[in-house]
Design a protein that fits this description.
- With about 500 residues, the protein is α/β, with parallel strands linked by helices.
- Strands 5-2-1-6-7 form a 5-stranded parallel β-sheet, sandwiched between helices.
- β3 and β4 form a beta hairpin.
- α18 packs across α20.
- The longest helix is centred in the middle third of the chain and has 24 residues.
- The protein is globular, with a radius of gyration of 23 Å.
Length: about 500
């Protein structure tokens, strides 16, 4: 029996029900459009929004999958209903989510997406489009104007990017008097709201200067920090959840009990009262966001690239490896923490302890290869920014540099890294290196590093131009390749950060 409104009464009594369902009575309904309808949004922002709904302030979400119909095909037969199961150390709690009542696939019906964004009852747009969806140069931070998709959207064709859709919707909102929007980025980018507005401004500046000016006056994009570990769903998990709740839920999600959402208090109009659901509305998100990027996200990437090469498949396996755990702990405490900004309510020591406990949650089965995708887009914020901040204070970062070495070694399998925008460039570099080795003309770690540093453009100028750091990186790659990952990690643990 498939979960739907018709079968909702068959759901186990143990499943938590919405206080106000999507079909419940309310005096008014206002709308959020979410771009990038993946598992994280459905286990995070959708849950916060459902918990913020009151009879007098009812909100619904139109979810937009930008390309794939997969999520739509899971949710549509279920009338948008799905379950979120929190699991930790044998304790399980499941709840029903009903706040997403419409799902669109942009690639199939772009006009419907623009209609939803431009509707008078839409006040908020949330985004989880991943780092690559911003078309941002990883080193300069500027919009990739020459990217074919951006170049296409600067014309009058059917949109292919978030900027094309937002531009079309904002143009209509200006013409119809629908007013501005609040754009809430929920992606792991430093200053994500500020970045989104700047890139959107660059795009509109090339397309329609008048609309760019109107957007500056009528659109707000608060910075945010989001945190919840949501592994990719598996058939086995869904089968277990179906057995527990009494119906089949093709969109079921498994996550941890922990969740966090910090939002800058900057909005262009009405919004859900997310604070009653536990969100933190603050004046300055930066210290919280920086701690998450440089502690949680950076550690996740280290566990992924090193852990996969040590033979681990899941986060809980990687963090249980004594050498890898010690390395990650040293990377956080001795290098990342000194680069953070102090803030009321932010305790790095307690945060690190909580992270290690969360990583060790064996009930989640969070795959390392899921974390490893899009490294070229993630590493500038997760590792390179810390190296740069420390260099500017005259400090080195041996563990972060070793993590970069692990990532470089990982990209040797570039043909299998299908989800990284630079996968073809990795493959070209490694093919040239292998050709040089066969010809007996190079291929040493120094050459590998020089090519990665010089050709990819992901290192900031401060890091790229510091020859001491580049030399240490070449030495780390050599150690990783000759002595193996475990010996390299052990050596880096003993290396004091100066």
């Amino acid at each position: 029996m498939r979960l739907s409104r018709a079968t909702r009464s068959h759901v186990s009594a143990d499943v938590g029900q919405p206080a106000i369902g999507a079909d419940g009575a309310s005096r008014r309904v206002r709308r959020i459009v979410h771009l990038g309808l993946g598992a994280f949004h459905r286990a995070h922002q959708a849950v916060y929004t459902q918990d913020a709904v009151t009879p007098d302030d009812d909100w619904r979400i139109t979810g937009v999958s930008l390309r794939s119909p997969q999520v739509r095909d899971m949710l549509a037969p279920q009338d948008g209903l799905y379950t979120v199961t929190e699991r930790s150390n044998g304790t399980t709690a499941t709840r029903l989510i009903s706040v997403i009542d419409t799902v669109l696939v942009a690639a199939e019906n772009p006009a419907a997406v623009i209609d939803a964004l431009a509707a008078h009852d839409t006040h908020v747009v949330t985004l989880t489009v991943t780092e690559k969806g911003y078309y941002r140069h990883p080193a300069t931070g500027r919009l990739l104007i020459d990217d074919p998709a951006i170049a296409h959207d600067l014309g009058d064709g059917v949109p292919r990017t978030i900027y094309g859709y937002l531009a079309a919707a904002l143009e209509r909102r200006r013409a119809t008097g629908a007013g501005g929007l609040t754009l809430v980025s929920c992606d792991n980018l430093s200053g994500n709201g500020t970045l989104l507005m700047r890139l959107l401004g660059e795009f509109l500046g090339h397309r329609d200067a008048a609309l760019a000016g109107w957007t500056r006056d009528h659109v707000a994009a608060p910075d945010t920090m989001v945190d919840r570990i949501v592994p990719a769903a598996t058939p086995a998990n869904r089968a277990t959840i179906a057995a527990a709740i009494g119906v089949d839920d093709a969109a079921a999600l498994l996550t941890e009990p922990f969740r966090q959402w910090v939002i800058e208090d900057r909005f262009a109009g009405p919004r859900p009262r997310w604070e009653i659901a536990g969100a933190q509305i603050v004046q300055d998100v930066a210290p919280f966001e920086l701690a998450k990027l440089r502690l949680l996200n950076a550690s996740h990437s280290t566990l992924a690239y090193a852990g996969l090469q040590l033979g681990h498949a899941f986060v809980h396996e990687a963090v249980a490896d004594p050498d890898l755990r010690a390395f990650v702990l040293a990377q956080m405490t001795e290098e990342a923490v000194p680069s953070l900004r102090p803030a009321p309510g932010l305790d790095p020591t307690a945060y690190i302890a909580a992270l290690l406990d969360r990583f060790a949650n064996a009930d989640l089965h969070h795959r390392l290869d899921q974390i490893a995708v899009d490294g070229s887009q993630k590493l500038p914020q997760r590792w390179i920014a810390t190296i740069e901040a420390r260099l500017e204070r005259g400090l080195d970062s041996p563990r972060h540099v070793m993590s970069l070495a692990a990532w470089i070694a990982y990209t040797a399998d570039a043909p299998d890294i299908a989800d990284d925008p630079m996968a073809a460039r990795y493959a070209a570099i490694w093919a040239a290196i292998q050709a040089a080795i066969r010809a007996g003309a190079g291929g040493d770690p120094g050459e590998v590093v020089d090519r990665f540093v010089g050709e990819l453009g992901i290192l900031s100028p401060v890091v790229r131009d510091d020859r001491a750091t580049v030399t240490v990186l070449a030495e780390a790659v050599a150690l990783w390749q000759t002595d193996g990952p475990r010996a390299a990690l052990r050596a880096a643990i003993q290396e004091p950060a100066r």
